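Lab manual, section 2.4: Encoding a predicted structure.

Procedure: take the sequence of the chain (312 residues), apply the prediction step described in section 2.3, and record the output as structure tokens. A sample record is shown.
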Amino acid sequence: MTYINLLTSSISLMSKIYKSLDFASPEGRDLEFSYPTQEIEVSWLLSIPTGFKRFGRGKILFNFPEINKISLRNLPLYTESDAIIKTDTGYILDVKKLDESEKFLLSVTYKAPRTLVEDLIAVQNSKSAMNIDNGIEEYWLSVALKKRAILGDVFKGFSIYGFENNIKISIQNPVSTAIPHSFIERLINITKFIKATDREDMHKVSHQRLRHQRSKTKHEDERKLILDLSNNFCSKKSFLKFINVDKPFIYTDAIQGDCNYSNIPFDVFPKSMSVVTTTNINFDNPTAEGKLYFKKNTFRDEIITFFEEHGY
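Recorded output:
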């Protein structure tokens, strides 16, 4: 479904509501899209003067299954009105419950497919590091609103909040140079022990493992070390200290990629990290551009320090 079909669907719903509120002289049409919740909120101003025109209406039904929520605020104070009532089949506007205000802001929230934003936002990130200066890699981030003129013909205001922009950062090189060979050998021996089929092989592997253990100044379970590595370097919180990002982008998450290293038998480190940044796009700010910085050498050096502190 193209963005035109999706906009048509949105306009169709709004037209149904407009028809129910023709007496209220609806003005404007602002659309806000929340990327995290995948919901669209459309708002417009209603003018409902007191008198027979108001009280002769009674209750107005909004029984549209696509609607998630309807709210009504009294202007100019923006206080919530209790004239909107949720029912088992939808919502009701009880006109008799409106206060003395004559201006109201009606907001309707409904679900929208993710493809709406994907069709409206152009993403142009750098696929690899553009520049490496003092051990810091730079990546270009760029998102822009498409179809600005067409959207302007349909909506008075248009905003997308929390748009997620992902960029993949390779950490294979700093990881490969930082993990001690002795640690990899221990992991290989564990694998051999697990796969050993006779007593002689098991004895040989056990002897090698004991020799490696004696050569260490500390004795820790490899499984705990692997878990500590993940928590200290590749979690959302820990990876942040190796990342800087220009505004208007905000770091929100880091997701581990595959761990298929040919020389490491266990999933110790991912080969890449997908860094998630978010930003807002609207008619006033239709583009967002900036750089993301990965402290590659610092990342490598802290892994080396980690192993040194654990006896490697």
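Check your result against the sample. The domain at 3-113 is CATH 2.60.40 (Immunoglobulin-like).
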